[in-house]
Write a structure and sequence with these properties.
It is a single chain. With 178 residues, the protein is of the alpha/beta class. It has one domain: ATPase, nucleotide binding domain (Nucleotidyltransferase, domain 5, 2-Layer Sandwich). Helix 4 links the parallel strand 4 and strand 5.
């Protein structure tokens, strides 16, 4: 579904998919379309929200709204965002290392990031530069024809967090057996 966002050779390469939810991160790896590895981690965007709560004395709901509307003080980048970027990078680096150790492969060629946390500022650039792996934020609607009544900018903002739901919805159009 999101493979088209990656370079043309990705279909034959090792692709790691990282879905960072509120409290859980699912790390999966495919190679040439075959599933090789999956691992769940107790980590997610809720930690980011809790940092905003503690630094700026906001309620959880206020912190969530501040994240979405970008209504945060100028020093937020250094106090909250940069430390969270570091934690995200460490979690993904550790997951890649565990996969490589157990899978016998030498590298991950591409990284596809989804989930609500995939929308945080500069995540794509950070992971590409720090991990040395071409990273793309998933947009499951990238190749879909959308109705003119849909606000495409608003959809693009939330698209990464709808990746799993979109995949599950599309599954119903494919034949499968239980």
């Amino acid at each position: 579904m999101c493979l088209s966002q990656l370079p043309d050779d990705a279909a034959d390469k090792t692709v790691a998919i990282v879905d960072i939810g509120a409290t859980m991160t699912l790390f999966s790896v495919t190679k040439a379309g075959k599933h090789l590895y999956s691992r769940d981690q107790m980590f997610g965007g809720e930690q980011y929200t809790r940092s905003i709560v503690s630094y700026y004395n906001k309620s959880f709901e206020e912190a969530e709204l501040a994240k979405i509307t970008n209504d945060l003080p100028p020093n937020y980048t250094f106090e909250v965002l940069a430390p969270f970027h570091t934690v995200v990078m460490q979690q993904i680096r550790r997951a890649i290392q565990m996969f490589l150790t157990s899978g016998g492969l030498k590298k991950v060629d591409y990284l596809l990031v989804s989930g609500g946390t995939a929308s945080i500022e500069d995540i794509e650039k950070l992971l590409t530069e720090e991990l040395g792996v071409h990273t793309v934020v998933a947009n499951p609607f990238n190749e879909m024809t959308l109705s003119d009544s849909i606000n495409k900018e608003e959809l693009a903002k939330v698209a990464p967090q709808l990746t799993v739901a979109t995949g599950l919805a599309l599954r119903s159009f494919s034949p499968w057996h239980i």
